[in-house]
Amino acid sequence: MRIRVISSREEIDSIRPSEKMVHLAFRASNVDFLKLMQKSPRLQAVQIPPSYMKTMSKAIGVFLEMQGVKLLEGDVWGHRKDIDEYFTVPDDALTAIKSLAGQGVSPEELAKEVQKSAKLGSDLINYIAKAETLA
User: Fold this and answer.
1) Per-residue pLDDT tens over the stretch 96-131
2) Rounded to an integer, what distance in angstroms lies between the CA atom of residue 126 and that of residue 107?
3) pTM of the model as a whole
4) Rounded CA separation 11/126 (Å)
5) Are 117 and 93 in contact (CB under 8 A)?
6) Do strands 86-88 and 21-24 pair parallel, antiparallel, or not at all (unpaired)?
7) Where are the domains of the chain?
């Protein structure tokens, strides 16, 4: 699973219309979210850092929900934008998530277990688990 990392407002213009998941590494305004939705209509999830989540307007949260876009809280630890514009979820983490979700492990336990080996946010882990169980 690849997550497009967007570091500035200017980068929103360069994203592909087919992007399904992005991480906003800047404090996005409502206008930035609207622009993001226009540029990438197939978007399924947006991840933002916890500190930005606290200051985000509730209106944009409702707008994203109405559009069917999941808003996730989390970071992309250790990602270097100068090397790659995408953060890739490690294969071993995806395997662990699929395995534990298939065993019926609760979302909280699943997140705790996977976070021991991979630096992924619990919202992202739960999102992946739900996506895998629906697939």
Assistant:
1) 888 888 888 888 888 888 888 888 888 999 998 888
2) 6
3) 0.86
4) 27
5) yes
6) unpaired
7) 2-87, 89-134
